Amino acid sequence: MSEVVRNYYDENAKVELERLNNPYSSIEFNSTMHLIDKYFPKTGEVIDIGSGPGRYSLELLKKKYSVTLLELSEKELDIAKKRIEGVGLKAEKYLCENALNLNILESDKYDAILLMGPMYHILDKEQRINVLKETLRILKKQGIAIISYLNSWGILKAGVTEFSSVFKDLNNVYGYLDEQSFDENNSFTEVYFSTPVQALDEVEKAGFHIASYAGAESFLSGIEEGVIKLYKEDRVVYDNLLKVAVESCELPQYRDATEHLHIVVKKI
């Protein structure tokens, strides 16, 4: 990941902190926690690669895991440390480092790994594969990792309401049926969108065994305005939909067409 990505997250550290508080983004947060509870070992050492402001690290610490945070943005890492220490918890380490440099970490060390964020911003396929191989190296045998990609197919759905003007060019519609890369002049920063087929292939080529995969937004993907409206006007309905969406995030009829693709993998 480049300085462009680092600068974006430094400048938007507080925005990233609040993102998962949004009633729509809360679906992603709760689905991720559901996968952690379902697949992670109940105890052990975890590294959160691309930890951002520490939303997941904080929850893992509450569950008594030993947690190391690795984050490109110093400002986001500072927020994470203040939030964690503010509730009386303590992480093992705070590493301000690029995910491209996982070679600094010890082999076969972690019982579980979150790799959520870096794969969104690595435009070069060879570099992505290397990050995946390094993640495999530092994971203990039988360890579990959750690896996240941004999914073109789900972003196409979301784009109907979020950025529909770009679809005045028919080629832009077709473009989201495949992987895409954008620089900072054409997106919020340097960003890579995969498809489930391509993401699963990358992960397998790196040597992981795929245990499952999920669409973080489940059947609520692409209808952010409606979800937020329900949150404000009928919390019973919102809460019911949220519960079922989280529980069904791995179902094949939903998981291929959400904005965030979570791949659950194992080192065998």
From TrEMBL:
<keyword id="KW-0489">Methyltransferase</keyword>
<dbReference type="GO" id="GO:0008168">
    <property type="term" value="F:methyltransferase activity"/>
</dbReference>
<dbReference type="InterPro" id="IPR041698">
    <property type="entry name" value="Methyltransf_25"/>
</dbReference>
<protein>
    <submittedName>
        <fullName>Methyltransferase domain-containing protein</fullName>
    </submittedName>
</protein>
<dbReference type="Pfam" id="PF13649">
    <property type="entry name" value="Methyltransf_25"/>
</dbReference>
<keyword id="KW-0808">Transferase</keyword>
<feature type="domain" description="Methyltransferase">
    <location>
        <begin position="46"/>
        <end position="143"/>
    </location>
</feature>
<dbReference type="GO" id="GO:0032259">
    <property type="term" value="P:methylation"/>
</dbReference>
